[in-house]
Design brief:
Layout lengths: L5 E3 L2 E3 L20 E3 L3 E3 L2 H37 L13
Antiparallel strand pairs: 1-2, 3-4
Length: 94
C-alpha cells in the first residue's frame, strides 16, 4: 500500500486519503473512496452519510443559536430605550 504522507517542517501528517474521516478505517488503493466537501474521504456511503447528517445537525443548531442571540439582543435594546427621552438633531462643532 502506498503512503500519502507529506512532510511539513519535519512533522509528518497523514494525508486525508490515508483513512476514513469517520471510522479511521484505512483506505485501500483499489477501493472506492467516497468524498465529501472536497477534503474528507470515507470508506463507505454509510460513513459519508453519517458525517453529512452530523454536519447538518450542527448547522441547524448554530442557526437556532444565532437566531436566539439576535432576538435577545434586539429585546435588550428595546428595553433599555423604553421610557427614556431621546433627542435627535444635528450637532455642529467648530
Amino acid at each position: 500500500m502506498a503512503s500519502y504522507y507529506s512532510g511539513y517542517l519535519g512533522c509528518e501528517e497523514p494525508h486525508f486519503l490515508e483513512s476514513c474521516s469517520l471510522c479511521r478505517k484505512p483506505l485501500g488503493l483499489n477501493t472506492d473512496i467516497f468524498m465529501y466537501r472536497g477534503d474528507k474521504a470515507f470508506c463507505s456511503k454509510e460513513c459519508r452519510e453519517e458525517q453529512i447528517e452530523s454536519d447538518e445537525a450542527k448547522e441547524k443548531s448554530w442557526k437556532i443559536s444565532a437566531r436566539s442571540l439576535r432576538k435577545k439582543s434586539s429585546e435588550a435594546g428595546k428595553d433599555s430605550a423604553a421610557g427614556k427621552a431621546v433627542r435627535t438633531g444635528t450637532l455642529v462643532v467648530a
